Model the fold of this input.
Amino acid sequence: MQTVQTDRREFVKYSTLGILGLVLGGGMVFSQYAIASENRLRPPGAVDEKKFLALCIKCGQCLQVCPYHSIKLADFNKGHGVGTPYIDANERGCYACEAVPCVLACPSGALDHHCEKAEDIHMGIAVLEFPDTCLAISQTPIPAGFNDKMRAFNNSVTNVHEYETKLLEKFDAFQGKQCTLCADMCPIPNPMSAISMIPDSKGGNRPEIYDGCIGCGVCQEVCPTSVPSIVVKPRMSYEEYYSNKKDRS
Ligand code: SF4
Ligand code: SF4
Ligand code: SF4
Done:
């Protein structure tokens, strides 16, 4: 439990300093500009961002129960909402646990308890942001060393969970293959409703996203390109992103 304790110490330190900073800064008023300027991936069940910032008591309960160490607490570098939980999909996405324990653990309503199962999670939507770098499209086999980041992440936690060990084993097996990582690692109960590999006009394959995507961020985490080709747009729906894109084209 070493890491969780460390995280909690950091949390107490940052939340105390954060409150002091807010008071010195002129009161406990959230800057609308700051809220609008940041769009952070929040844990499952997170209510609307403004309400979330008002309700979250920064207790760290959600991160303590997460078996994947997906949830972090925002520090000063992250702008507004110091001490609030978020998910950095470049490091570790949310693995959509069946009973959503992070939501169950939240005592304040910042994570809505109506989010009871993986299918209820709606964090955002995945987007193939950089198709030019996608290994499946360029038909480039997954290179050796692609798994260094995940291995380093698991090594960085002293209380690594068996789920994290199994995850790495599954991941390791992809080396040298044509890339289907985003589709094959998608953790939701019915991944085909969220993403699948379809033939691309250049002869390879490409990931296609569907409205079953919950925006968990796992595809972003596992994408082996140096800057992930596929990324999650937090708090955005499939309709908002893909219908608007269609209208624009
Ligand atoms: S659903 Fe599971 S993996 Fe995702 S943030 Fe909650 S506890 Fe962590
Ligand atoms: S495609 Fe799958 S892995 Fe990617 S964000 Fe959507 S649900 Fe998560
Ligand atoms: S994980 Fe998906 S988006 Fe990333 S390189 Fe592989 S196929 Fe392309």
